[in-house]
Amino acid sequence: MNLFVFGLGFTARRFVERAAAQFDQVRATVTDPARAGAGLDGVALRGFGPDVDDARIAADLADTDVLLVSAPPGRDGDTVLGRYRDAIVQSRIGWIGYLSTIGVYGDQQGAWIDETTQPNPASGRSHGRIAVENAWLALGAETGKAVQVFRLSGIYGPGRNPIVKLREGKSQRIIKAGQVFNRIHVDDIATTLLASIARPRAGAIYNVTDDEPTPPQVVTEHAADLAGLPLPPEIDFETADLSPMARSFYGENKRVRNRLIRDELGVDLAYPTYREGLAALMADTKA
After folding, report:
1. Given its phi and psi angles, is residue 123 left (phi above 0), alpha (psi -120 to 50 degrees) or beta?
2. What DSSP assignment string belongs to 189-249?
3. Confidence at residue 249, expressed as pLDDT on a 0 to 100 scale
4. CA nearest neighbour of 281 among 136, 158, 130
5. DSSP for 98-134?
6. Domain residue ranges in the chain
7. Lower CB count within 10 Å: N or C terminus of the chain?
């Protein structure tokens, strides 16, 4: 059984590290295969991006059984489908996973939501995600291939977490009354993907998130306490110096349920809240 990954970024890389032994061959795309640290042992790299397209990809897809799409959409929609839809349709690929975002639900004013909640995207970026989700699901309906969409909450893990931000002096303690976010450890995403590959369901949509939506400043405070680091000062959201993308995140407030991945896929989160996740990361750092 062979795996192909479009977009060997933070999440897909961790998945490949966890899953590679289950596959005979693993191939994955990066924007620059020559960049130091771009690859992983045993993974054949292919160039793929706005200005690069490895000529071997079409043949690779014909020799693929499991396809993970982690590459973000382009300005004109999904670049993978734009270039390789026909190759995927004609291939023997049986399982396709598309990594999306809980941002497609938009602002739910702090309400609890699940996969039955109607998406209400606020940003153009999230509107684009919905369109791409639908395009992948339509491909699955047309071909009978098991396409699954995974809506991910705020991703953290080794090298990318609140402790690292505090150590690098890049952490901000933004205060916005009533604001909460869900998070998900990258290892729990990998666990969910592996569970879906073992138990595919065509057309499935899963929220991949932790159990405890929490105000962001509370997580920062806990990380600082664990690491013995000083807290950054409180900053009121209205006066905070935030990028447009960061400000848009704060414009969306929701509590996301993960019951479906537990009940249907049997996923048991290793890090059900930020407390377990940060404690494990702290232990790794000390080691």
Report:
1. beta
2. HHHHHHHHHHS--TT-EEEE--S--B-HHHHHHHHHHHHT-PPPPEEEGGG----HHHHHH
3. 83
4. 158
5. EEEEGGGG---TT-EE-TTSPP---SHHHHHHHHHHH
6. 2-157+182-212+255-270
7. C
Specify which residues 29 forms β-bridges with: 46
Task: Tell me the residue type at 165.
Answer: K
Among 246, 237, 272, CA closest to 165: 246
Give per-residue pLDDT as tens, 174-233: 999 999 999 999 999 999 999 999 999 999 999 999 999 999 999 999 999 999 999 999
Lowest mean pLDDT among 119-128, 247-256, 266-275: 119-128
Global confidence as pTM: 0.95
Structure tokens at 188: 């729990």
Q: Which two tokens stand for residue 168?
A: 């690098």
- What CATH topology corresponds to 2-157+182-212+255-270? Rossmann fold (3.40.50)
The pLDDT assigned to 287 comes to 35
Q: Where are the alpha helices (DSSP H) in 63-111?
A: 79-90
| Burial classification of residue 184, based on how many CB atoms lie within 10 Å of its CB (0-12 exposed, 13-18 middle, 19 or more buried) | buried
Interatomic CA distance for residues 86 and 58, integer angstroms: 9
CA separation for the pair 202, 87 (Å, rounded): 19
